[in-house]
Amino acid sequence: MLKQLSVAAALAAAAVAQSTPSLADALKSSSELSTLAGLVPQDVLQTLSSASNITILAPANSAFEKVSPQVLSSLTANPGALTALLQYHVLNGSYPSSAIPDEGAFVPTLLTNMTYTNVTGGQVVHATTDDGKVVFYTGDLSNSTVTTANVNFTGGVIHIIDTVLTIPSSVSDTATAAGLTSVRGALVSANLVDTVNTTPDVTVFAPTNQAFQNIGSALPGLSTDDLTKILTYHVIAGTVGYSTRLVNGTSIATVNGANVTITINDDGIFVNNAEVVIANVLVANGVVHVIDQVLNPNNSTISNEDGGVPAYSGATPVSNAPFTSGQPTPSAPIGGGAGAGNGTRPTGTGSPTSSSGLPQATANAAPALAVSGGLAAVLAAAAFFL
Fold it and tell me: Where is the composition biased (Polar residues) (predicted)?
């Protein structure tokens, strides 16, 4: 009897295996994926076909129609760049749409090439749900929505998406795209651009231009050393602090050496008294959270009163945003542009801890750079390093 049952089980398993298509067959069988099927090089297809426990975010034909023919042509002529882009569309793990939590999760991809990322464990996508739809946020807060979910193949699952994902770019280029030109200009003034761009696994709290403008009277007399102390107080190295990994009440050491305190409540996420107004902007080497105040390493007092304690007591606003002279202006703001979605942005709300069960990125990666601009970014980064 047991032998008969085992034979029956084996036959059933074989039948299921035969009914589940290979990756190549799954791509060929979908009329929505003909462009992608034509782009995937044979060696990449063979590698992915032999993999197991993966999730492929497959751009539909309509997604590639948003990309200029010139960029697509250049991409196919650069195998390294094409492979990097394809790797960023493969999640390390098999996740049906039902596994994506409402509060979001940061899921590592197969993109580990140091030309394009220095996040340990692989560059991530921010997976979340919105009105019952699964959405993936990537570089410059570009977003892509799943249009057809849970297409099974022998190595895992395919989700068809409406927009090609954007590989996250450097901190400085992301600051430009986000209109954070005071941050970029301050980094230039302090000679910190390369340091911030190449330090592995960083969390950057980036003040808005208005935040710098609000304390403008306190800035003209700063020495380079003083400015460096302020800017490095906005950077945590060795930990990528996505919002789901921040814990209420924790005190975290910054590159400056002084600590910042994280507060999470019904009003949002706060760093000392600064509120996170845009969270989880993915960058090549970690994550940026946009905040509404400039942090002061010499005044980290936390207040429970509305409005908090001014970090720069006595400072007064100025008419123009400091450090912006000579800085580039955004040509494709975050949340839009080539390869991007419709402009929806995650806000400063988030879960105090990760509760999704999906894997999170860890720390310690080797330095690298990337640049912004969707598919064009991949090509520009490749050209820089080749």
Answer: 316-327
Tell me, yes or no, whether 358 lies in a domain.
no
Return the structure tokens found at 266. 């019904």
Tokens linked to 63: 């997604």
Looking at residue 245, which CATH number applies to its domain?
2.30.180.10
**In a structure prediction context, what are the per-residue pLDDT tens digits for the chain, which is 386 residues long?**
434 444 444 444 444 455 899 999 999 999 999 999 999 999 999 999 999 999 999 999 999 999 989 988 888 899 999 999 999 999 999 999 999 998 899 999 999 999 999 999 999 999 999 999 999 999 999 999 999 999 999 999 999 999 999 999 999 999 999 999 999 999 999 999 999 999 999 999 999 999 999 999 999 989 999 999 999 999 999 999 999 999 999 999 999 999 999 999 999 999 999 999 999 999 999 999 999 999 999 988 776 545 445 789 889 999 999 999 999 987 655 654 333 333 333 444 433 333 233 333 322 222 222 333 455 555 444 443 33
**Domain count of the chain?**
1
206: which residues sit within 8 A by CB, 6+ positions away? 175, 178, 180, 183, 234, 288, 289, 290, 291
Residue 344 within a domain: no
Query: What is the distance between the alpha carbons of residues 312 and 14, in angstroms, rounded to a whole number?
Result: 69
